[in-house]
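Researcher: I'm preparing a figure for a lab meeting and need a structural model of a single chain. I don't have an experimental structure, so a prediction will have to do for now. The sequence is pasted below. Please return the structure as tokens so I can convert it later.
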Amino acid sequence: MLRYGCTNRERHKAAHDRHLAEGRRLLRDLETSPDGHASRMYDWWKGWSVAHVVAEDIEFGLFLKAVSASGA
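Model: Understood. Here is the structure written out token by token.
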């Protein structure tokens, strides 16, 4: 079970890294965007980031609770 958790954590880290790269791209676009599209996209990205981190923390907390309950 612990191996699954590590694999899952690695998958989350890869998704997080891709997400950060998207955020950096959006920040670059903010500097050059004459309309408000990049700004709206950045606001969406920021909101999604917070929700994703909270969900990931809850998922990892549930995983740790399951591991401790199983006595592993």
